[in-house]
Amino acid sequence: MDDFYRDYILDHYRNPRNFGHLEHPDVVAEDTNPLCGDRIRMELLVDANGIVADVRFFGKGCAISQASASMLTETVKGRPLADVARLTKEAVLENVGIGISPARLKCAMLGLKVLKTAAVGQLASWPDED
Amino acid sequence: MRACVADDASKLARIVDDFPILRERTVRGRRLVYLDSAATSQKPQCVIDALVTYYSTYNANIHRGVYEIAERATDAFEGARGKVARFVNANPRELVWTRNTTEAINLVAHSWGGANIKPGDVILVTQLEHHSNLVPWQELAARTGARLTYVPVDDRGLHVLDDLDDLLDGVKLVALSHVSNTLGTIAPLDIIVPRAHAAGAVVLVDGAQAAPNMPVDVKALDVDFYAFSGHKMCAPTGIGALYGKRALLEAMPPFLTGGDMIRTVTYDGATYNDLPWKFEAGTSNIAGAIGFGAAVEYLSQIGMEWVREHERSLVSYAFERLRELEPRGLVVYGPRDPDLVADVISFNYADIHPHDLASILDGEGVCIRAGHHCTMPLMEKMGWPATARASFYIYNTRQDVDALIDALGKAAAIFKIDRAGAAGALGG
Asked: Which fold has domain A7-120?
């Protein structure tokens, strides 16, 4: 576990990127991890071409969940929403690096879960809006 | 005095030696430092042996078997009831086996509560309660139309009794924990119980965190119900006990119904067994009860006065060592007074989330708990997102406290807490 808390993890924990709220998000999703009480909210702005034009996350919790969510926002900004919906846990593990224990994997994956919920929900809602 | 300390050290060494997991187990090459006994205690060899002996030499169902091993199993099962009853100074007839404290409280909530709580009645609990001594009363109140009110606690987690008599006005039931599992606060039962009785209330005490850690005498406490779990006091999981005053238990309807709890059954109905079996439907956790008997026998040999003194001394030492870290942002919650605290210390360290702290400590072989400790309303009231909790038991030593402090030093290094202004406090 010692290997896990690298400088960039602590940096994202203490200085989260894209932290806060969007004024008019197109889609919002939120979830909690009952083990740690971690809470993550993701807000997305999606342009006419289906690209994630902007993203904000808001939350509270352990360094793993918050840093992982922060890094994910950097991963998805400017990417097509369809790609976000298809993100896998490998994307998160690439971000946070190795050394995470099975018990804490849920913390690392919370941001991804919320982001995918948002993306899938938004993609599903498009045909109706057209 | 010196001889006394030496005796204590050798007694402690002998106790540690009784626990195979502490004698033999290492985590990544380090000695296991177990500071989570408030969640569940480790088990001494004599308890493990009692289970193995039952299963390997006289395993049989109890009460109606006429063959030798069934009689032996019945004797052991009822003998264990006697041991556990004596341990809290109860009559064995007044001691009902349950799965755990939670089930014991639910038994009272459903059986006594269902028969006695009416619309508009008031149930008084405290703001410190574990979910297991809170949710059953919330549910009972919702079922019956009763109202739930709270004895407040101050910011150190001590009961505020200034308005106790007003709070007790018209109360039917008072339910409170003897010791808080989150802050270790010892409830002033000597004040609350007589005043609750004077107000005409019945008193249930959740003893899950007290029975393992201090002498408990249900007669002297004069409580009406006392619930406790075996697994926090050296016994196996899945066995607990409910003490209830005989008159109350006699008047209560059964909780679960079925086999073993009946006297006669016809197609038209059933009559119920005597106490305590009226409340023990189905085949009980026979091995667990026998293990519980062995556990209290073991604890009695050590002496519960010694246990209390040992933990008071450990908690006092831990407070002292933790204070060294306060300038770097360590915050201890709760009463912070070894006389007012049983076995538990809750804390946070700068802006390190307790789950991160627990993970780093795990890397050092130190087991602590992190989270809301099943007291979510208390955490919300206090404004703590979560806390780290170290808890101590008979087998813990000052070396274990030192290992905790060393591991916290490691966490501080990883999170760079030593560097100037790295972090504000997490909460509280």
From this structure: Sufe protein. Chain: A (3.90.1010)
